[in-house]
Amino acid sequence: MMEEKKRVKIKELLLNGQVGSDVLAKGWVRTRRGNKSVAFIALNDGSTINNIQVVVDVQNFDENLLKDINTGACIGVNGKLVESPGSGQRVEIQVASIELYGAADATTYPLQKKGHSMEFLREIAHLRPRTNTFGAVLRIRHAMAYAIHKYFNDKGFYYIHTPIITASDAEGAGAMFKVTTLDVNALPRTEDGKIDWSEDFFGKEANLTVSGQLEGELAAMALSEIYTFGPTFRAENSNTPRHLAEFWMIEPEMAFYDIKDNMDLAEDFLKYLIRYALDNCMDDLDFLNKMYDNELIDRLKFVIENKFERLAYTKAIDILEKVDQKWEFPVFWGADLQAEHERYLVEKHFKKPVILTDYPKEIKAFYMKQNDDGKTVRAMDVLFPKIGEIIGGSQREEVYEKLLGKIAEMHIPEKDMWWYLDTRKFGTAPHSGFGLGFERLLLFVTGMSNIRDVIPFPRSPKNCEF
Ligand code: 4AD
Ligand code: MG
Fold it and tell me: Does residue 440's CB lie within 6 angstroms of at least one atom of ligand 1?
């Protein structure tokens, strides 16, 4: 018996495989065509969006084996790598032997045909990684995660793992998911009829975190420059193409940075990530550009080549108030900006990414540094074309008394926040940070139009199947 050769990934074969060598490739059949004497199989193993063509001399093979080799089947092919006379690829495999690992019944395999809608593919999220589109999205998602760690590591930032279960509900970033081991059908009650959380696993109410920022700040007050990159959870019932109930967030936090340093970092970081995608994911971007959004690559290049516009919220309101357009949400000083306003500023007015600063204190979180005007805080939101808000952040209030005052004003229980307040009590320092929504970044980089299509298993209201 011949010793089994080592399998080579298809990406490697297409790029560097030596013509004339004997090779072993394994993967899933994308298509099969041909006639009575020769069959052409397009084989893909996910290492690249490109398939390798496998050529089978039909008369040398058992009919029973070949009939099972159709779209979706998983096979291994042994053969000679030869120059491909056909268009589009350098090499193809002239098959000597085939092993069938798993057939996929043509009448029931859901991806038998091409061109399914995104909505349908969401219903078969367990199989959609096998499509070209999701293969491309998942490879880009990986590349962006890697680039994020590389960017911060190269800059001397430390990766901090902040907790996923938390007892603090101070951020106010959104409704929280409760974590409990209590029997929901027989909740323990206190004498006044309230739920007795002291009986629960942690002896108090606990939730899934909406952000790693507050714990990230604790680490920045010791290691200077840190970042978190983890899952976050928000239970708001927002059924939009830009919201998930479970999403990933990157949150750098830096001692000694003011709001300007914070903006500089955010702009540099986003440009680095987009450039990384252009330098390393071009096969997948070309595919997405061709299939979904023929301005995608131009838009990515445009963003890295142009300086982001920076302006204060108050100036943005001035601009929006003068626009002759019917808004779904009214524009006035003090209003929280909605995606329609953000996208107008970015896409119509400035025609480039915008960083808005100095928002009214009433619409922003308690920890943001108060400006001297008594009305605004040192917040910054980065707004992107097609997305709206991609980053939210601020300089932090580092003065103990001011922070304490704000906590009281916003009715945040001081007893839950003693550990956070301690940072301002002992060795406080000016500091800043921001949060980048990982899936919002991916929406921008892939050109997909729904956030549920850039995460393997999306969590949104009434959607938790897989
Ligand atoms: O603006 P947000 O709520 O800010 C914070 O959570 C701060 N603690 C960040 C910080 O300063 N460290 O959220 C930050 C980003 C948003 O700009 C957006 O990109 C993303 O997280 N985001 C969501 N992405 C998907 N689905 C949701 N429901 C999101 N909510 C926020
Ligand atoms: Mg925000």
Answer: yes
Residue 1 has pLDDT above 50, yes or no: no
For ligand 1, atom 22: residue with the closest CA: 437
The answer to whether residues 82 and 94 touch, using CB atoms and an 8 Å cutoff, is yes
Residue 147's alpha-carbon distances to 44, 211, 369, 443, in angstroms, are 25, 21, 30, 16
Index of the ligand 1 atom closest to the CA of residue 390: 19
Q: Is 211 in the pocket of ligand 1 (CB under 6 A)?
A: yes
The domains of the chain, with CATH numbers, are 10-102 (2.40.50.140), 128-175+210-453 (3.30.930.10)
**Minimum CA distance residue for ligand 1 atom 2:** 392
- Which residues does 357 contact at the CB level (< 8 Å), separation at least 6? 259, 263, 310, 311, 312, 313, 378, 379, 380
The C-alpha angle 292, 232, 161, rounded to 5 degrees, equals 115
Q: Is the pTM of this model over 0.85?
A: yes
| pLDDT tier for residue 3 given thresholds of 50, 70 and 90 | low
Map tokens 């927002």 to a residue: 238
Q: Closest ligand to 368 CA?
A: 1
Nearest to 116 by CA among 458, 344, 453: 453
